[in-house]
Amino acid sequence: MKILKDTKSKLGNKIELLGCDKFKPVLIIGVFHGDEPQGDFLIKEYLKLNQNSEMLFIPCLNPDGMNLNQRQNSNGVDLNRNFPTKNWEKVIDKTFYGGETPNSEIETKFMVEIIEEYKPQLILTLHAPFCTVNFDGDALKYAEKISEIIGYPVQEDIGYATPGSFGTYCGVERNIPTITLELDENIDVKRLINPVHKIFDYINSVI
Question: Which pLDDT tens digit goes with each residue over 90-123?
């Protein structure tokens, strides 16, 4: 496992794509939102035991937000509203502020470049706190299996508008099966190691 591609955030923190020279087109991403740090821990714990995994990993997309313990990046932008989708719109709400323009953020640009360069065929992103398996694109069969493993319900519609979301960018507009796994934030993250790592092994087996 090595750094295949990296960049630095506004505050100088590294954002890394990890993988092997021979990789499967499967991408796992943690910490879109800085106040949802579970993904960083769970990915790094997995890689301690699976250094030769052929999947691609971004343990922490938003290190500035994680260090600041805030949803947005250091520019105050919700990265999951900043992608250049057909439904992007300028959101005034501070919590979900998607930037002045789509794809304006270092982190978003990094993700867009990775999607174009590495062409993943299946994507899993780790979020919190809704305890659901959300999906975009042709991903229902994957979502149902993940639901069996972790015991969360499958939910195609998260229940509110998400203009400029990563799921729309990849799953809806590029037909890449995209799973958004919303984890339970009210339990010790160590209790999530077993089910989430089983999910990682599962998605590794299907591509």
Answer: 888 899 999 999 999 999 999 999 999 999 999 9
CA distance 113 to 95: 26
φ, ψ at 140 (rounded to 5°): -60, -45
Mean of pLDDT values over 3-15: 98
| Pairing label, strands 122-127, 132-136 | unpaired
Active site residues: 182
Q: Name the residue among 61, 96, 202 with its Cα closest to residue 141.
A: 202
Find out whether 79 and 62 touch, Cβ atoms under 8 Å.
yes
pLDDT, tens digit (0-9, with 9 covering 90-100), for 41-57: 999 999 999 999 999 99
Question: What domains does the chain contain, in order, with CATH numbers?
Answer: 2-206 (3.40.630.10)
For the entire predicted model, the pTM comes to 0.96
**Helix, strand, coil abundance in the chain, percent, nearest 5:** 35, 20, 50
Q: What is the mean pLDDT of residues 167-185?
A: 97
Q: Please state, in angstroms and rounded to a whole number, the distance separating the CA atoms of residues 8 and 82.
A: 18
Length of the chain: 207
Q: Between the CA of residue 77 and those of 73, 93, 106, 121, 164, what are the distances in Å? A: 5, 11, 11, 27, 12
